[in-house]
Amino acid sequence: MIESLEIQPWFFWVEPYEGESISHFLGRFKRANDLTSSGLGKAAGIGGTLARWEKFWFNPRPSQQELEALAKVVGIDAFRLAQMLPTMGEGMDCEPIKLCGACYAESACHLIRWQLKATRGCSRHGLRLISECPKCGAKFKIPALWIDGHCHRCFTTFAEMRKYQKPVKPT
Ligand SMILES: [Zn+2]
Ligand SMILES: [Zn+2]
Question: Ligand 1 centre and the CA of 72: distance in Å?
Fold first, then answer.
């Protein structure tokens, strides 16, 4: 029945990658829909909170209510969105932004596990993570701004950076 239908604005939905961080996902969703952070925050009814999540500022932690509000707009369920955050009680660093170039070469995305305090390296590749461009020393931008997958200063690609990563020391 017509009256039971909720009118939703039309958005292009974006499929999340395995392990993708919320910042990276939000960046892709915004670009696919030509939205700013405040535009998307407004559409979801969570305002400026969205821009904080893009910077991994999770204090206060995203509430179930906020995740559900965002879930409606981005067309992904709140549980899946929560997987883009550190789990409850898990320590994380908002900066520096870290990267495994070998992972990025396989799947062009920033993984939330790279920002966790407990993460010592990439377990998949046995490599240490890098936290700045190995060529020019520029810090990485927040993943929401990762558009072309290269250093914004010297244009070294994230995939190329794998050859600068040192193996994780066996413990
Ligand atoms: Zn890796
Ligand atoms: Zn660089």
Answer: 32
Kindly identify the ligand whose nearest atom is closest to the C-alpha of 165.
1
Report the separation in Å between the CA atom of 30 and the middle of ligand 1, taken as the mean of its atom positions: 26
Distance 31 CA to ligand 2 centre (A): 23
Taking all residues of the chain, what is their mean pLDDT, rounded to a whole number?
93
Helix (H) or strand (E) holding 73: helix 64-74
Whole-structure pTM value: 0.92
8 A C-beta contact, residue 74 and residue 14: yes
Residue corresponding to tokens 């009680």: 89
Chain segment 81-101, per-residue pLDDT in tens: 999 999 988 999 999 999 999
- Write down all domains in the chain, each with its CATH number in brackets: 17-82 (1.10.260.40)
Measured CA to CA, the distance from residue 157 to residue 53 in angstroms comes to 25
Rounded alpha-carbon distances, angstroms, from residue 106 to 12, 18, 34, 47, 162 = 24, 12, 26, 34, 11
Say which amino acid occupies 94.
C
Q: 35 CA to middle of ligand 1, Å?
A: 30
pLDDT digit string, tens, across residues 149-168: 999 999 999 999 999 999 99
Query: What amino acid is encoded at 72 in this protein?
Result: K
Phi, psi of 130 (to 5 degrees): -110, 145
Tokens of 144: 């929401």
DSSP conformational letter for 160: G
